[in-house]
Amino acid sequence: MKMHRREFLNYGILGLGGLITLSILTPAATYFLSPIWKKGEEDWIFLGEADKIPLDSPTKVEFVQRRKDGWMTVEEKRSTWVVTKDGKEFSVFDPTCTHLGCPYNWSVSKKEFICPCHNGVFSMEGKVLAGPPPRPLDRYPNRVENGKLWILPVIKKG
Ligand code: FES
Fold it and tell me: Does residue 30 surpass a pLDDT of 80?
C-alpha cells in the first residue's frame, strides 16, 4: 500500500502532537497525584528508650506526629499509653476509649484504665472489664530496635 505525502505528513503531525501532549501531561499528573500515592506510606515514630518504660506500670508518653496534608507537613501532638511486663514485649494503646472516644486514665490504686465519660473500665492488657466499651483498647504496632521503642500510630483494632 502506498501512502501519499500529505497523508504521511498528517500522521507525522498527529504523532508529534501526541508526544508533546504526553510529555506535558505526564509530569503534571505525577506532580498532582503523588500525594495520593504516598498516603499508604508508613511513618514509624521513635517513642523513647525501651528501658525507660517502667515495668508493670502503664506510662503515658507524648510524641509529635508529622503528617503530609497535600503539600504541607502538619505536626500534631499526640499521646499513647505504653505497657510492658518484662521490658521486651510492649503494648502501645491508642489513648481514646473504644466506646465514644473519651481520653481514659490509669488508676494506680485500682490498677485499671478508667474512662470517666461512661465508667468504662479496662485491664492493664486493654481488655474490657466493665461499662459500655464494645471492644478492647486499640493498639498501635510497635517494635524495639537497638533498645529504642518505635510505634506506628495507626489504629489496629483490639
Ligand atoms: S467514652 Fe469511654 S465509656 Fe463511654
Answer: no
**Which of 107, 113, 118, 128 is the pocket-test mutation for ligand 1 (most atoms within 8 Å of CB)?**
118
According to CATH, the topology of domain 45-151 is Rieske Iron-sulfur Protein (2.102.10)
Torsions phi, psi for 129 (to 5 deg) = -105, -30
Out of 100, 105, 135, 138, give the residue to mutate to test ligand 1, the one with the largest number of ligand atoms within 8 Å of its CB: 100
Q: Which residue has the higher pLDDT, 118 or 29?
A: 118
Amino acid sitting at position 12: G
- Whole-number Å distance, alpha carbon 134 to ligand 1 midpoint, is 10
Quote the pLDDT of residue 40: 47
Residue 92's nearest CA partner among 41, 146, 48 is 48
With a cut of 90, say whether residue 122 has pLDDT above it: yes
List pocket residues of ligand 1, CB cut-off 6 Å. 97, 99-100, 102, 115, 117-118, 120, 131-133
Q: Domain residues of the chain, as ranges? A: 1-40, 45-151
The pTM (predicted TM-score) of the whole model is 0.73
**Across the chain, what does the average pLDDT equal?**
88
